[in-house]
Every structure is written in C-alpha cells, then in structure tokens.
Design brief:
The protein is of the alpha+beta class and 289 residues long. Among the domains are: 74 residues; 79 residues, Gyrase A, domain 2 (2-Layer Sandwich); 48 residues, DNA polymerase, domain 1. The protein is built from 13 helices and ten strands. The strands form three sheets. A four-stranded antiparallel sheet has the order 8-9-1-10.
Length: 289
C-alpha cells in the first residue's frame, strides 16, 4: 500500500571492516545509534521552589545500558539555553522568572541526549564473521552519514525514505526486492518480470504510489478504467462533473462496454477491397473495361 511509514520500520546496518570485526566497537556504535532522551536515564525528578529550579537524579544503570555520558548531557544543555548545574549524579536546571516548572520539566525530559531520531532500539547480530546492527525504526539519511557505517550496504524497508535519499530508481529496485522476498517466504514462484512491471507502475510518476484508487489507478486517464477498480458510482459522478471524455483506448474500458480489444486480430483496423471479390464474380475492373 506504499504507506509513508511502515508499521514496523527496520534497518540492517553493516559496518566497515575495522568495526565489523570487533564486538566492542560494534556495540559502542549500536548504542550511539539508539535515540535516547533525558527521561530514559533519569530515575527521579524534584523541584526546588525556593531557587525556582528542577532537579534530575541520574540512573547510573540506565546510563550505562544506554551508553549515555555526561558529555552527551552537556551537549543537550547547550540547546536548552538555561542556567544549570551538572554533577555526576544529578542535573539542576534553573527556570526563568514566572516560568511554568511542569512544562519546563516535560520539555527537558523529552530532549535528545544522544542517538538518531526514530531509531528506537538496536540489536547486534553476528553474520558471516562480521557484526551487523539491526534497528527498530528507520532514518536512512542520517545513518549513511556515519563514518563507521558501510553506506553502500545499508538496507531499510521504508521505501519512501529510499526514494527521498537515493532516488526513485533505488526505490523501484527496493520494491522488486521486497516483493520477491515476501513471495519466496510464502513458497510462491512468480516471474520477476511481473514484479518489475508492478514496480514500474508504482514509480512511473517519479514518486512512490500505492496500488489502489489513490495511487496507480488514479493515474489512469480513462474514467471507466478508474471506475472498474473501486467506488464505481462516485468515480463516474466525479468524471461527469468534470466533463471528462473516455476515448476507449485501453483494454479495460473496451471490455466494459463490449468492444473488441486492440490485441491480436483486434489490432487490425484497415480494410482492403479487391475488385471482384466482394460480389463473387472474380472479375477485375480492368477485364470489365
């Protein structure tokens, strides 16, 4: 259906050889990829009303598990632009005069500490003598910019991201690959040329379109062909309101009204009259003269 965001967006991120061979280096990169907010590494939040400040107590176990450091928190504070005091165990942020402490607390807790947006979870897998990172969530544009990542081999199931970052031809190739993979998992053997035609139709306009009335079917110029797919009455009414004309050039619309389709013998529209053949006399015009 070519939805903008897949229900379960995932990525497969191979690393360059110097990182793929080392489990420690690969784990470090995997932790860097995971999107982490301050809320993920804080165990307790308190208010100091006399100083008009909010105090965040760090969870040391969570920080270690997430791979977050005080340096990451310092970088976050640069974006906050508030007076603050950072120690190994806590962070104190001073609010401005008459500022709502609850709203400020929610804002700070949702701020990014590290990682790449939309990468919610990472998993390290050992494949063919190398470590590969699998992720829940997808952000192709930012992932391929990491120097440790082998950007030529990165894979995602988000077709729209592929089209936006790598172009429509890459999206077409991804559609063919995904269709082939799904069919093979079901034990179905479909000629790849059928999949190529489908991928061509989905990417014909330069953007990825779904196979439905809002996508590929909508590109058809024939009102009858569009009406043959879904919501026939509404489609015909819309076409009538716009005053559209159907020239009956396609197979679907010709079949609908009972006309011969232009395939095989139906492609012939030229008639030749031979003298003497029509009346069965066998005589030509020259012999009669």
């Amino acid at each position: 259906d070519a939805r903008k965001t897949p229900s379960t967006p995932i990525m497969r991120i191979p690393l360059k050889p110097e990182y793929a061979k080392s489990k420690i280096k690969a784990q470090r990169i995997a932790k860097r990829l995971k999107y982490t907010t301050l809320e993920d590494i804080v165990s307790q939040v308190g208010f100091d009303l006399r100083k008009n400040a909010i105090i965040f107590k760090f969870d040391e176990k969570a920080m270690k598990a997430e791979g977050a450091t005080l340096r990451d928190v310092k970088n976050m504070l640069k974006l906050l632009k508030r007076k603050s005091n950072l120690t190994e165990k806590s962070l104190t942020v001073y609010a401005e005069a008459d500022e709502d402490l609850e709203k400020l607390k929610d804002k700070i807790l949702s701020m990014k500490v590290k990682g790449i947006k939309r990468i919610r979870r990472t998993l390290l897998r050992y494949e063919n003598g190398e470590y590969v990172i699998l992720t829940e969530g997808s952000n192709l544009k930012e992932v391929i910019q990491l120097p440790e990542v082998d950007h030529r081999s990165v894979w995602t199931n988000n077709i729209h991201e592929i089209a936006a970052v790598l172009g429509i031809e890459a999206a077409r190739a991804a559609i063919i690959r995904e269709l082939k993979h799904v069919l093979e998992e079901q034990g179905l053997d479909v000629d790849i040329r059928h999949l190529m035609i489908l991928a061509d139709m989905m990417t014909l306009s330069g953007v990825v379109k779904q196979v439905g009335r809002h996508g590929v079917v909508r590109l058809k110029s024939s009102p009858l062909a569009r009406a043959a797919f879904e919501i026939s009455v509404q489609t015909l009414l819309d076409a009538a309101i716009r005053g559209e004309t159907d020239w009956l050039k396609g197979n679907v619309e010709r079949i609908l009204i009972g006309k011969e389709i232009k395939i095989g013998t139906g492609m012939v529209s030229l008639m030749m009259m031979y003298p003497g053949v029509a009346d069965g006399s066998g005589k030509s015009e020259k012999s009669e003269k």
